[in-house]
Q: What sequence folds into this?
């Protein structure tokens, strides 16, 4: 079970066992990103050993550079799980009015080999 509450500088990170979806929502600029994300890395490495299906749903409106590195680490863990046979899919939601958020999502998608859907929300898109 993973259930991290959001703060002003950290996203909520919640595992839904029924849908096998890890959702990350909010902003990510903690003082120490690697400390904040360490329990997520640990949980992912354990959970992905046995899960046949895994969904990752992200709606992060802002991410600092160290959080970006942590996100790349998370995506690497997901790619490793996919190579072992887990059905992994990423859905990245972004504010349709935020071109930088779209650029960031596209950069992440370019770096990985798993299904990665980018979905605009807001701006009449929701």
A:
């Amino acid at each position: 079970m993973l259930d991290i509450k959001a703060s002003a500088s950290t996203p909520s990170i919640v595992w839904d066992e029924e849908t096998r979806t890890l959702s990350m929502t909010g902003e990510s600029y903690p003082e120490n990103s690697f400390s904040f994300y360490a329990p997520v890395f640990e949980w992912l490495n354990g959970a992905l050993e046995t899960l046949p299906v895994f969904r990752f749903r992200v709606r992060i409106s802002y991410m600092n550079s160290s959080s970006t590195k942590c996100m790349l680490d998370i995506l690497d863990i997901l790619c490793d799980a996919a190579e072992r046979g887990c059905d992994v899919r990423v859905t990245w939601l972004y504010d349709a009015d935020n071109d930088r958020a779209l650029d960031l999502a596209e950069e992440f998608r370019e770096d990985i080999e798993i299904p990665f859907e980018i979905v605009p929300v807001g701006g009449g898109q929701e």
Remarks:
- Residues 3-121 form a domain with the Transcription Regulator spoIIAA fold (CATH 3.30.750.24).
- The CA atoms of residues 28 and 68 lie 9 Å apart.
